[in-house]
């Protein structure tokens, strides 16, 4: 849902803020007041093309911004574009400089117009007078048909992903055959060289430690024996001195209690000296000055160093490199068997996809008949005499497969008797396009409500001057349809007709006035009394009469019953 829209120095707007609510938000005002300018500003935030013409005269840039409620899919788009989410809201801002250049920000982080266009289908569908912003293309038309029927594409999406993954593996295996054959000898050599050495993790660390001992064997042997002699064996050793001291302290302890602790401490020190002396003696006995073993270690370390220069800085990296080389060799040697297995897997995956796509096609064709009948009736309620059909064509060639099936859904319409059916984007009138979309949306929402299949995320729908060329009962019908549609989705609509304005949940007045020699446009949310006066103005023109006020009150009351 659109929460807020701001425009600064944009066309005739110096500074305007509109805070929208759920349901039906209607914008009214005198002709030329700038109502469509606000819609155009929102269209810019949905990624439409910018022009320096929108920069207010005398200023260096125009700024438009808005705040939307976020959706899970919109947050995924933000993540894909490297943009941080900001809680439950998405803030869009676009600056257009007087030289034609511009800047885009999403959640106050620099972004691109491309990011806005990706977000647009998740946030708002804007039907301006000049164009449709939000890509109401065949994908959107298919999405409406699926919503009407409550169709889920999860199963076919999974089948497509599985088929695509297997196809990618097979293509890679087949297309890279020559390159892999050229590399086979190298991979064989690398795998066998590493396998012949058979390195073990951390082996080099242990060998380096052993090498240091062997290179200093005589020095270590002498040091260990000297330590043993000083601690335990020699004349005047620490052990002998401690024993003599212990005897004296024990004698003192017999007469003086405070020496009892000292006795225990000396006994502990004596035991420690004995343990350290024994350790030094055992270490000396275990030292073997073996030139043969030293040479063997030197050679092994040299071999491991050679592997490190080629395949990695650690033995673990070398082992992983060898395993990968062996895998590549096995892949080439077993290529024919692997291709055969992958082709069998691909056939099974394709069969599953075809079954899902065909079932989906049958359901869409049946649903299209129901939707086109409902939509045509809704369209003709809006002062149009149109024929409306929904075609569902298939492209069974694998090149045309998608995660949504192989169907192409296209809405076609003839707005005048005797004319051929044409795609929606070939409708000349912007007002007609808006009314067709309104009728189609209402039909879809009513169908979804009957089936109680509320699967579509909330989204803002914007209609610019949907009432062109209609009046009377048709205008009231448009108002009723907008009201019905706004129960499921937020709707923003510009209107000149009081019959439609009476249905508003929030009514905004767009006013243009001269101030300080400049024309300024402002946006104001109308309260009850002001709203009645605005609808009365729309009924009677510049002079508001008591009769028009009473009529306006009655229209508002009737529209909310």
The span between the termini is: 25 Å
Spans of at least 5 consecutive residues whose pLDDT stays below 50 are 131-135, 452-457
Helical/strand content category? alpha+beta
- Order of strands side by side in the largest beta sheet? 9-8-13-14-3-15-16
Helix content: 55-70%
- Mean model confidence by pLDDT: 85
Number of DSSP strand runs: 16
| Overall shape | elongated
The Rg value, from CA coordinates, equals 42 Å
Discrete helix count: 18
Largest sheet: 7 strands, mixed
What is the chains' assembly state? single chain
Beta-sheet strand percentage? 15-25%
Brief description of this entry?
This protein is of the alpha+beta class. The protein contains 18 helices and 16 strands.
What descriptors fit this protein?
about 550 residues; alpha+beta; about 55% helix; 7-stranded mixed β-sheet
Describe this structure in words.
The protein is of the alpha+beta class and 561 residues long. The chain has 18 helices and 16 strands. Strands 9-8-13-14-3-15-16 form a seven-stranded mixed beta sheet. Strands 2-1-4-5-6-7 form a six-stranded antiparallel beta sheet, covered by helices on one side. It has a three-stranded antiparallel beta sheet with strand order 10-11-12. A hairpin with a 2-residue loop joins strand 6 and strand 7 (109-111). Helix 4 runs parallel beside helix 14 (430-451), helix 7 (203-215) runs antiparallel to helix 11 and helix 17 (528-540) crosses helix 18. The protein is elongated and about 130 Å long. The model is unreliable at 131-135 and 452-457 (pLDDT under 50).
């Amino acid at each position: 849902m659109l929460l807020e829209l701001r425009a600064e120095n944009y066309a005739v707007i110096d500074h305007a803020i509109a805070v929208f609510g759920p349901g039906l938000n209607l914008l009214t005002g005198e002709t030329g007041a700038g109502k469509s300018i606000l819609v155009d500003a929102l269209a810019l935030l949905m990624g439409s093309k910018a022009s320096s013409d929108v920069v207010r005269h005398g200023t260096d840039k125009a700024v438009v911004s808005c705040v939307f409620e976020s959706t899970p899919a919109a947050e995924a788009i933000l993540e894909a574009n490297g943009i941080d989410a900001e809680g439950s809201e998405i803030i869009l801002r676009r600056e257009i400089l007087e030289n034609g250049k511009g800047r885009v920000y999403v959640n106050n982080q620099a972004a691109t117009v491309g990011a806005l266009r990706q977000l647009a289908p998740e946030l708002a569908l804007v039907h301006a007078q000049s164009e449709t912003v939000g890509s109401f293309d065949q994908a959107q038309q298919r999405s409406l048909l699926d919503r009407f029927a409550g169709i889920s594409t999860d199963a076919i999406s999974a089948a497509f992903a599985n088929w695509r993954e297997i196809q990618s593996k097979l293509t890679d295996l087949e297309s890279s055959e020559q390159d892999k054959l050229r590399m086979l000898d190298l991979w064989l050599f690398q795998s066998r060289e590493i396998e012949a050495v058979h390195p073990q993790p951390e082996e080099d660390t242990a060998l380096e430690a052993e090498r240091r001992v062997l290179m200093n064997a005589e020095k270590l042997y002498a040091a260990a024996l000297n330590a043993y002699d000083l601690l335990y064996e020699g004349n005047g050793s620490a052990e002998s001195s401690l024993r003599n001291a212990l005897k004296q302290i024990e004698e003192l302890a017999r007469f003086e209690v405070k020496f009892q602790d000292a006795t225990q401490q000396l006994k502990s020190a004596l035991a420690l000296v004995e343990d350290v002396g024994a350790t030094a003696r055992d270490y000396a006995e275990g030292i073997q000055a073996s030139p043969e073993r030293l040479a063997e270690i030197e050679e092994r370390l040299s071999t491991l160093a050679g592997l490190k220069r080629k395949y990695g800085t650690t033995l673990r990296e070398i082992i992983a490199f060898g395993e990968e080389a062996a895998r590549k060799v096995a892949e080439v040697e077993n290529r024919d068997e692997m291709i055969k297995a992958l082709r069998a897997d691909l056939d099974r995956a394709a069969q599953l996809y075809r079954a899902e796509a065909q079932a989906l096609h049958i359901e869409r064709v049946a649903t299209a008949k129901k939707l086109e009948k409902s939509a045509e009736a809704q369209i003709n309620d809006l002062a149009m005499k149109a024929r409306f059909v929904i075609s569902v064509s298939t492209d069974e060639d694998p090149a045309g497969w998608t995660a949504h099936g192989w169907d192409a859904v296209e809405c076609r319409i003839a707005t005048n008797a005797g004319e051929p059916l044409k795609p929606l984007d070939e409708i000349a009138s912007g007002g007609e396009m808006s009314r067709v979309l309104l009728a189609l949306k209402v039909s879809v929402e009513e169908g979804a409500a009957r089936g109680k299949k509320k699967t579509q995320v909330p989204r803002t729908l914007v209609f610019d001057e949907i009432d062109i060329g209609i009046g009377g009962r048709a205008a009231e019908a448009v108002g009723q349809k907008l009201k019905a549609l706004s129960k499921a989705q937020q709707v923003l609509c510009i209107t000149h007709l009081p019959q439609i304005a009476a249905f508003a949940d929030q009514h905004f007045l767009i006013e243009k006035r001269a101030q300080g020699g400049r024309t300024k446009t402002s946006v104001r949310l109308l309260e009850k009394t002001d709203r009645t006066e605005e609808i009365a103005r729309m009924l009677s023109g510049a002079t508001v009469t008591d009769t028009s006020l009473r009529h306006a009150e009655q229209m508002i009351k009737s529209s909310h019953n």
